Amino acid sequence: MKLRRFRLGGAVAALLIACGSVGVATAEEDDRWWAPGEGRVFPATLDYPNEHGTLRVLLEGGPMETRGHPFFEPIGPYGRACVTCHQPADAMSLSAKSAQIQWERLGHKDPLFAPFDGSNCPDLPQEERESHSLLLDHGLIRIARPWPPRDFDGNPIKPDFDISVVRDPTGCNLSKEWGLPSPDPHISVYRRSRPVANFKYILAMGFNFDPKAGLPLPLDPETGEPASHNLMADGRVLSLASQMRDAASAHLGFLEELTPEDIDRIIDFEKRVFTAQQKNRFGGDVNAGGAEGGPLKLAESEPGRLGSQGIPVWSEFDAWANSDDPDISPEERAWRESVARGARNFRERMFLISDSAGITTPIGFGNPVRDRCAFCHNMSQMGMDVAPGQVDLGTTNLPFADPQPHLPLFKITCKAEPHPHYGREIYTYDPGYALTTGRCADVGRITLQSLRGLSARAPYFSNGSAKTLREVIEFYDRRYNIGYTEQEIEDLVNLMEAL
Amino acid sequence: MQGRFWRFVAAAVLVNVAVAAPAEQQIKPVVEQVGEEVRFITCPIYRDTDAGRKSGCWLGDRRETGTRFDITGSPTKPDWNHAVLVEGRVVEGDTQQCGGVLLEPVRVSVLHDQNCTRHMLPAEGFTGRRFSLPTRNIRPLYEPRELPKPPYQEKSFDIPFDFGRDYIVYQLSDYYIDKAVKYAIDIDASRVEITGYAATTPTTVSGQTLREPAELALRRAEVAREWLRRMGYPLDRVKIRAQTKAKVSDMEGADGLTEPSRRRVTLRVIP
User: Fold this and answer.
1) CA B259/CA B261 separation, integer angstroms
2) Residues of chain B contacting A482 with CB distance shorter than 8 Å
3) What is the largest CA-CA distance in chain B?
4) In B, residues 139-168, which contact A (CB 8 Å cutoff)?
5) Subunit contact B54:A365, Cβ cutoff 8 A
6) Residues B138-149: pLDDT tens digits?
7) What is the pLDDT of residue B234?
8) Which residues contact A392 (CB under 8 A, 6 or more apart)?
9) Which chain B positions have a beta carbon within 8 Å of A211's beta carbon?
10) Which terminus of chain A is more solvent-facing, meaning fewer CB atoms within 10 Å of its CB: N or C?
11) Which residue, B232, B231, B241, B229, is CA-closest to B267?
12) Helix (H, G, I), strand (E, B), or coil: what is residue B65?
């Protein structure tokens, strides 16, 4: 193996023990966090409690020895592993809460808080909590994107917009070493980790067509094959293999590439992991009483189907519409019925979607268009977009985004055609897909995530702007002036908790 | 609780009155004739009808005559912030769904450089139109597909475009270009000749002179070439040409409308 591997130093290990003895971490918390290189066995079924019930992670063909496995072993100078930011208990993503617990335990010595992207900017004093506030308070990892952008083959693109920094609370965008003024200019945006699971769906291609671009799917330069184009908030990589090169050089600070053997082993693992909520907070299974929630169903089903032409999105829970199961408590019955109503609401409750590039332009659905949650979240059983899902929901663009004083704010000036919805100037916390394409028409377009395992991985949206599932629904309610009743909000939240 | 109930009944009665109103009106063009082809620029109006997903109505007032048209049927729907070029045929149809004289077929091209004040009308009792999947759509990959049988014929495919754009219109142009490219691949065509057209000859519409830029002809042809590339057809077998001053054609995708029939790309697929 070509990799130089770094193990946790003795000092760090000692600190771990010390913290444990002070009683900061309970036994259960110890077991939740997967530190790099622990050499645990990854079982075929792994359950973790969370505030809404229990999350389940399934490993097809498991159990699996993780000792020596490149997803779990520390790689690079920080002693980090892939699992550091893709934790089983957090639905293979990373919750802000887990980051907080690790800070309590180890402070900046935990490899999660490595200066390069586990702090607000590498040139800040690393011992201070303040320097890691975006990760601790909002679950955000720094993503440094090259400016000007590069295409999938790595060649620079001539962008059709200028970018300038309006506000730089982390100092990283104006830093002479890390920012736009540096000899190797980069733009720092701050994003949530995304679940490394259920890839059968995320990589599935329902159509060989991206209607949002009016073109067939892009070709992955490594294989020459079409790609689902549903990876990463800004769609900057087209395959799990190229994602890994991106991760190895960025998050792991490792300059040499992963070996082809490492890459194959990681992909093999990634394709066998499925995760979803398994039990609700009253203790019942989400695949009881005729419902079909939980990860087993995901592992067994055909991916990539459009809900409107096949299995309706979240019809898994239709059987709960009228629960007559005598063995469940009144609370659980009420909860089940609420989930079933939430699922119908997700498919049927209409509202006017406006000024959301990717949906209202350039594709001709109209601005506005009357539709529902399942319009964008249209893939059966997964709730992502069957077509490449780069959509501007307004989570990062003003005036739609909620105020986020902790994040950098950029001003985009479109040089060729103005943006159809914003005009020539756009203010954004994260230009998203535009950092991949170099087009101002793509500013703020963010790739839809899968909607599984949500209970385990708050906060939500790629910039962590919704702290709870209720805040997600309230964002939509404000954004599109939906006018939900309290009951509808509750039903949708309960549905999200059950996924 | 009871008070709420009576307020609800009162509201329902009011709504009923509103529903009844449009049925009484006769919405007919004053100036235009049934069968006439119209072409005009206007600011679109959104009517907030609700018959399920994608059931909102789009209206366009033809300023020259004062007729309010129902332009909902266009594959490209308007953007309420921008002017639209409307091209369509006047038909006798159901005017109660949206509240305008029906154009069918109809094409809407969004004119992004002309801003409009957004305007939304309430449903006012109009029903809107229930969405049904347009017959021209690309089928999912998991559906089995019939391959052409030899002997293979030379075939020409025409791809329609909106005014001023090289974007492949969803559930119209995509259907035709997908057919063309799949045919070229299925028969392993020896050559594909692409001709991109642009309607550069000026026309006057609603007091404006409209002409497509000359370079659009090539850009459209390049989009077709990119389709071939991404779907795996070897580019060394592709010839590409651009032609301005596009003439009227009998392209199926224009549904018999005169001006839209000029804006196209032709793919000649040679076995």
Assistant:
1) 5
2) none
3) 78
4) 139-142, 167-168
5) yes
6) 999 888 999 999
7) 98
8) A355, A356, A357, A358, A421, A432, A443, A444, A445, A446
9) 170, 174
10) N
11) B241
12) coil
Q: B178 and A209: CB-CB below 8 Å? A: yes
Per the document, the length of chain B is 271
Any bridge partners for residue A275, and if so which? A57
Over the stretch B163-189, which tens digit does the pLDDT of each residue have?
Answer: 999 999 999 999 999 999 999 999 999
Check CB contact under 8 Å for B174 and A367: no
27-56 in chain B: CB under 8 A from chain A: 46, 48, 50, 52-56
Q: Provide the 10 A C-beta neighbour count for residue A4.
A: 10
Contact B111, A450 (CB under 8 A): no
Residue A7 confidence class, pLDDT cut points 50, 70, 90: very low
Is the Cβ of B4 closer than 8 Å to some Cβ of chain A?
no
Token pair in block for residue A182:
């540096």
Chain A and chain B share a number of CB contacts under 8 A equal to 99
> Pick the residue with more confidence: A30 or B252?
B252
Query: What's the confidence (pLDDT) of residue A30?
Result: 67
pLDDT of residue A254: 62
**Alpha-carbon radius of gyration of chain B:** 22
Candidate from A211, A219, A417 with C-beta closest to B112:
A417
Q: Quick check: B79 and A367 CB within 8 A? A: yes
Instruction: Look at residue A95 in the predicted model and tell me its pLDDT.
Output: 98
Taken in order of first residue, the domains within chain B and their CATH numbers are 2-122 (2.40.50), 155-270 (3.30.1330.60)
Asked whether the beta carbons of residue B170 and residue A363 sit closer than 8 angstroms, the reply is: yes
